[in-house]
Amino acid sequence: MALQDDFSTNQNHASTILPAQHSSSYQKHPLSFEDGNLALLVENYFFIVHKGLICRHSAPLEKLIKDSTDKRRLLNRPVVEVKEKWADLGCFLSSMYDGVTHLSASIEDFAVVAAILRLATKYQVAHIRIEILRKLASTWSRNLLAWDIRESNATTLGLYKPRAVYPHPIMVIPLFYEVKAFEFLPSAFYDLSRCLASDILSGWSYPADPSTSWYLNNEAILTVLKGKEQASRFLSTFIVNELEGREPCASCVYKSDPDPMKKRICPASFEAVTFEIVRDCNGVVCHRVTDPLFAILDSYLMQKRDNPIGRGKITFRACDYCRDEFAHAVESARNDLWQKLPAWFGVKLEHWPQNAGY
């Protein structure tokens, strides 16, 4: 049967037959059901769906259907036109029928996840929105522990490659503003602040599809650059207060040693760490340019690795007591930095960090 003939001519329904040149442009989407009783028309596609299911889950769609004055019929079903992109609506309808358990927060699923989140928010399908936000929470962390797990998951054999695993923050920041998921903005902005300023300004293109690019507006660019400066100052302050000229702790095993060389072991260890951080070792070697959270943690981990800092046969490794005292300073500084992220990036939240929800 020709597609233009699919519009009923039942005069009892006061239906309208579209001219052939118009009706032939519509295609039946694979997400259609034989027992469906409603045709959703979007761009050049239509979906045959179940009115009861749609209305049960979405009050705005129920109102749209109820208020529709469209007299057309398609495959003998009433037609309601929806002003969305057909691909986005297809993802959204699929989530209503099949759920979202098969999706993840990975770069591969980003386009689908973003489409579902936008429409679930717009059409007030709360349970789908919550499920999507729960998935995103593992990537766009709301507390420091979750962030550390996220970073670990992006590291393979010592090589840190987040862009192979997670969507670029330039892709998600506008989305989080749009759907009012403000709780994810601090970590997204921090992630972006670790990039070079030139990369922030130039936007980002997905390697698999270079024709598609994402950019931030001027306000968001200014926000991330201001936060980047604050994070840099925080790291500088940490170096000055906790590393430069750090004295041995009260329980240092070398503090009272008569050998001047041994007496200098712990101070020399922290001097070496200071040098490594100042020359941006974490950016040059680990490809984490301007990452204060990592740099502060690495200042402690440097003293625990099998290849201690130093040259020749000299081993700059602080004693256990001095390392433990420094570990507390590192933990306190990292928690303090995380606490400041919303203020640095202009995000107003009632609670931060967040450990509950989703």
Automatic annotation (TrEMBL):
Domain BTB: 36-105
One Pfam family cited in the UniProt record for this chain: BTB
Family annotation (InterPro entries): BTB/POZ_dom, SKP1/BTB/POZ_sf
Coiled coil: none
Name this polypeptide is given: BTB domain-containing protein
